[in-house]
């Protein structure tokens, strides 16, 4: 019989010419900075933050934004402890921090770097939004001077400097050209293109990528999810030569959140773009679960890969197909028959439940999974209970149906 995987036709590759990405993808995890700006989160403890950074390192994420130490003494203490842990445990992940484009906000990062002995990339945040500029009565000369002064201070402090322009995707090209050139002339080695309001579409990102910037500076993409396009744009950015993409576990962030780092990694894995030796995705589901636990933000049941329902089905036809594949011992086919994501590769399994749309196969699978003999009477009891219900039976309801006189 033909191999089930080999018989699948991949329309995603039909029009592709050449490699998907020019260079191996790189990532900046913003969970501990931008992710914690969500009004729905609770602040993780320091120990929990340390654990998350260790997991990011295992996932092969290139850099982690440790926070904005200029925001408060507690923020500064946490950033210093996290940076010290990266050094002491010889992690591969690089440290970055955010600061407003002022010397007073940048200075705490410089001092932490000097005390710990770790080079920390500084992302100088410039409020360059046209809307903000109008409301605050800021002019180009002021923004230009803030850019020059902040980047020059970072460079004098012997730290890598990045200019982060707020609302890049709605700013006029003349403004961006001026600020980018000023930053590069002052010594910036990175520009962060920020879709602060989630405005961009693929066409917008493509046009923005066409800006004339010098080769000696790298580009990052920081996307928000207001239009629901953050994941697509993150993948699109890498395909169009953006050097690093920012994201947060579980897609956390202001308003509707940002690029979900876990789903970015998942999709690049499925596209064959991740080095298995460098990226340990066996902890990817745990990473999402821990972020959910530590921030108090629930994982939606239908969330890809990590959601409760990601690999559950109660449909009779779907259950039958999965069950037959498992019965033949063909785990790969069971994984692929009704999902593009291989559950077992991430420590998940397919679950067949009993509901109003189910059939005998659902009931028989449930019985086998619970070590109960499959009999016509047991199958009938479960199906009768399911047909009377208005949703999938939970464990207690299924057990009660079997025990009923």
Terminal-residue CA separation: 46 Å
Number of helices: 15
**Number of domain modules:** 2
Radius of gyration: 25 Å
Annotated CATH homologous superfamily of the largest domain: Aldolase class I
- CATH-defined fold name of the largest domain: TIM Barrel
List unreliable stretches of 5+ residues.
none
CATH architecture of the largest domain: Alpha-Beta Barrel
Mean pLDDT: 91
Q: How many strand units?
A: 10
- Amount of beta strand: 5-15%
**Helix/strand structural class:** alpha/beta
What would you say about this model in short?
The chain is of the alpha/beta class and 405 residues long. The chain has helices at residues 46-58, 73-88, 103-116, 130-136, 140-156, 173-186, 202-209, 230-239, 261-270, 284-295, 316-327, 331-336, 360-369, 376-388, 395-403; strands at 26-29, 63-65, 94-100, 120-126, 161-165, 190-195, 218-223, 244-247, 312-313, 351-352. Helix 1 (46-58) links the parallel strand 1 and strand 2.
Can you offer a commentary on this structure?
The chain is of the alpha/beta class. The chain folds into two domains: about 15-295, TIM Barrel; about 310-405, no CATH class. About 40% of the residues lie in helices and about 10% in strands. The protein is built from 15 helices and ten strands. It has helices at about 45-60, 75-90, 105-115, 130-135, 140-155, 175-185, 200-210, 230-240, 260-270, 285-295, 315-325, 330-335, 360-370, 375-390, 395-405, and strands at about 25-30, 65, 95-100, 120-125, 160-165, 190-195, 220-225, 245, 310-315, 350. Strands 1-2-3-4-5-6-7-8 form an eight-stranded parallel β-barrel, surrounded by seven helices. Strands 9-10 form a two-stranded parallel ribbon. Helix 1 packs antiparallel against helix 10, helix 2 runs parallel beside helix 3 (about 105-115) and helix 7 (about 200-210) packs parallel to helix 8 (about 230-240). The protein is elongated. The two termini are about 45 Å apart. About 40% of the residues are buried. The model has no long low-confidence stretch (mean pLDDT about 90).
